TrEMBL record:
This is NAD-dependent protein deacetylase. NAD-dependent protein deacetylase which modulates the activities of several enzymes which are inactive in their acetylated form. Its main location: cytoplasm. The gene is cobB. Keywords: Cytoplasm, Metal-binding, NAD, Transferase, Zinc. HAMAP family: Sirtuin_ClassII. It catalyses: N(6)-acetyl-L-lysyl-[protein] + NAD(+) + H2O = 2''-O-acetyl-ADP-D-ribose + nicotinamide + L-lysyl-[protein]. It holds the Pfam family SIR2.
Length: 293
C-alpha cells in the first residue's frame, strides 16, 4: 500500500522491443479473447490529463491520500471544494476514438474482458459492457459511516445548494477530478454529510492512494485475465502495482502481453512488444484492419 505516488521504478528485466508496427497486436487480437487493461493514457485524448505522461499532473499536484481524507476535515474540505469544480469537466468529457474502438473490439469478440484503472466512466459511455472499474468510479459516492453508495450527481446538487456563491475562476483540471484552487476559496466551502445515516463522511467511490482495492474486485480481475488468451495494456505506465500485478500474472501464466503506450512502462520486461503510438490512431487502425470499425 502506497501513500505517496511513485514516479520512478527499476526495470524488471530486459524491456520488450519498442515499435510502431501494429502487426503483432493485430495478429493476437484476430485470434480473439484478449483482455484489455486500460489506464489514464486512453483518456488523455478526451481532455483528461494522465498522471505520468508528458503533461502528467503528478508533476504539479499530489493527489489526496486515503489517510489524509479520513483523518482530516480540512483535507476533506480541500478535496471536495476542488473536486466540486473539477467534476463538471469530468462529467462533460466524451469517449474518444480509442474508447469507441475498444467497444467495437469487445462487441466482435476480439476482446473478451475490459479492466480499467480509470475512474472516468468513458469505456461505459462508449458502449463497452461489462467493465471492471479497478479503482472505482467518480460518478458514485460512498458513505464511510453506513457504506451506502449514491450518485455523484445528487451530491453535486446538494453541494451547489450548500455553496450558492461558490464560483471560482479555474482552468486546470487534475485527473482525479480536481482543480487547483486558492486556500481562501477552500476555507469558505461547506461540506455536506450522508443523507441516509445523517452524519457519515462522504467519499468518492474511488480507490485513493494508500487504500487497497477490494479483494473481490481483484479476484474478478484475475479470473478475467485467466479466462483470456492474452493481455493488452492500453495507455498505462503500469507504475502502480495494482495494475502491474495482472501483467506479471499473465506473463507468469505464459500468456502474451502486448502494450500500446507512448513511452516506456514498468511492465515492458513482461511484454512481447510495446507499440509506441497515440491510442486513438492505433486503435482506429486496428479496428479497420480487423473489419470491425
Ligand atoms: P499514468 O499516468 O501513470 O500513465 C499513462 C501513460 O499513458 C503514460 O505512460 C503516457 O505516456 C501514456 N499516454 C498518454 N496519452 C497517451 C495517448 N494518447 N496514447 C498512448 N499513450 C498515452 O496512468 P495509469 O498507469 O493509468 O496510472 C494512473 C492512476 O491514476 C490510475 O490507476 C487511475 O486510477 C488514476 N487516474 C485516472 C484517470 C482517469 O480516470 N482518466 C486519469 C489519471 C489518473
Ligand atoms: Zn451514511
Amino acid at each position: 500500500m502506497r501513500t505517496k505516488p511513485t514516479l520512478t521504478w527499476t526495470p524488471e528485466g530486459e524491456p520488450a522491443p519498442r515499435t510502431t508496427d501494429l502487426a503483432e497486436v493485430e495478429r493476437v487480437l484476430s485470434e480473439g479473447d484478449v483482455v484489455v487493461l486500460s489506464g489514464a493514457g486512453l483518456s488523455t485524448e478526451s481532455g483528461i490529463p494522465d498522471y505520468r505522461g508528458e503533461e502528467g499532473s503528478l508533476r504539479r499536484h499530489t493527489p489526496m491520500t486515503y489517510q489524509e481524507f479520513v483523518t482530516s476535515e480540512e483535507g476533506r474540505r480541500r478535496y471536495w471544494a476542488r473536486s466540486h469544480l473539477g467534476w463538471r469537466t469530468i462529467a462533460r468529457a466524451r469517449p474518444n476514438a480509442g474508447h469507441r474502438a475498444v467497444a467495437a473490439l469487445r462487441a466482435h469478440g476480439f476482446v473478451s474482458g475490459v479492466i480499467t484503472q480509470n475512474v472516468d466512466g468513458l469505456h461505459q459511455s462508449a458502449g463497452t459492457a461489462p467493465v471492471i472499474d479497478l479503482h472505482g468510479s467518480l460518478d458514485r459516492v460512498v458513505c464511510l459511516g453506513c457504506r451506502r453508495t449514491s450518485a455523484r450527481e445528487a451530491l453535486d446538487r446538494r453541494l451547489r445548494a450548500a455553496n450558492p456563491s461558490f464560483a471560482a475562476a479555474t482552468t486546470r483540471i487534475n485527473p482525479d477530478g480536481d482543480v487547483d484552487l486558492a486556500d481562501e476559496m477552500v476555507r469558505e466551502f461547506r461540506l455536506v454529510s450522508c443523507v441516509a445515516c445523517g452524519s457519515g463522511v462522504l467519499k468518492p467511490d474511488v480507490v485513493f492512494f494508500g487504500e487497497n482495492v477490494p479483494r473481490d474486485r481483484v479476484e474478478r480481475c484475475y479470473r478475467t485475465v485467466d479466462e483470456g488468451r492474452a493481455l493488452l495494456v492500453l495507455g498505462s505506465s503500469l507504475t502502480v502495482m495494482s495494475g502491474l500485478r495482472f501483467v506479471r500474472h499473465a506473463a507468469r501464466s505464459g500468456k502474451p502481453v502486448l502494450i500500446v503506450n507512448k513511452g516506456q512502462t514498468r511492465g515492458d520486461a513482461h511484454a512481447q512488444v510495446r507499440v509506441d503510438l497515440p491510442l486513438g490512431k492505433a486503435l482506429t487502425e486496428l479496428t479497420g484492419r480487423l473489419g470491425c470499425s
